[in-house]
Amino acid sequence: MAPVVLGGELAARLWVTNPRAAPEPVERRVIERFALVVALELLKQRHRTEVEERLSGDLIGDLLRHGGPQQPQGVLDRAAALGHDLTGPHHVAVLALDPPGPAVRLAELVRAAAGGHPLIGPHEDTQVILLPAAPDPGDVLRGVIGHLEQVLHGRIPTIAVGPVAGGLAEHAAAYRVARGALMLRRATQPGGLVDVRELGLAALLLENGTPETLRRFARNLLKPLVANDALRSGDLLPTLRAWLAEGCSTRAAARTLVVHPNTVSYRLARIEQLTGRSLRRVDTRLDLQLALTVRDIVRLDRA
User: Fold this and answer.
1) Which of 39, 53, 253, 267 has an alpha carbon within 20 to 30 A of 18's alpha carbon?
2) How many domains does the chain have?
């Protein structure tokens, strides 16, 4: 056995299989020289990885500039040189670890877990991962979280994936939405995958709102419904979700919940009574939808 050392760090070990006896001095020198060759190859690979990570970080920084990159064609060309085609739509995912701090070979670990060759690089205090819009990246990102949980002992990974960026100019807004959701989750219960790809207007508030403001807004608006469900059968929040998801149709919500439409009407009236808000008003519906979205992201039901 011979160690492969890089910069004083043990990078690998070479094993001689099925030796007839202990190596002679000449044989040991051959093994040691081979270990040196392996060390030089590993050093070259590490250098290439470091250069790629630096270039990827610079590229992502330019891509996520507010208002879009100043030289779009230059960004496309630099991405192509790194093996990435940014001409099609992409998902923008944002990764952070808790407790915060650098992690050795984080980009390398993400690539190994994701398969393929996603574009990943640091931006602000997160790692940004760009994945093609198709196929759906949900399973890939959940696999990344599982892998990081296994190898980064004591660190909790959280990933948020934002709306699809259809063009270069849309990546910055998608990043801000994803980062807003990430910060919101980390402020309460970090960990897991936060999927905010289909938020609509709620995405605007995630993009600009602070975690504490959004959390307080959701708690205050939904507090009477949560208290009611805790004391009784727990039907008001599921009914509200179904009703909003079905385009505010009482009959459609009743079919989803497998109850009579009159039951849904009664529960909606109870929601109005407890919140003091009219469900006929568009602003009330938007507020409730946002509050439910925030509740899902920060997992207030577990807090």
Assistant:
1) 39
2) 3
Which residue bears the tokens 């009159």? 262
pLDDT, position 208: 66
Which string of b and e fits 70-105 if b means at least 16 CB within 10 Å? eeeeebbebbeeeebebeeebbbbbbbbeeeeebee
Bridge partners (DSSP) of residue 123 are 126
Pairing mode, strands 192-195 and 156-165: parallel
Are residues 55 and 110 part of one domain? no
Q: Are 141 and 193 in contact (CB under 8 A)?
A: yes
Q: Are residues 166 and 119 in the same domain?
A: yes
Q: Say which residue, 44 or 176, is predicted with more confidence.
A: 176
- Look over the chain and give the mean of its residue pLDDT values, rounded to a whole number: 85
pLDDT of 205:
67
CA distances to 33, 37, 146 from 29, rounded to whole Å, are 6, 12, 42
pTM: 0.67
Strands 156-165 and 90-98, by their bridges, are: antiparallel
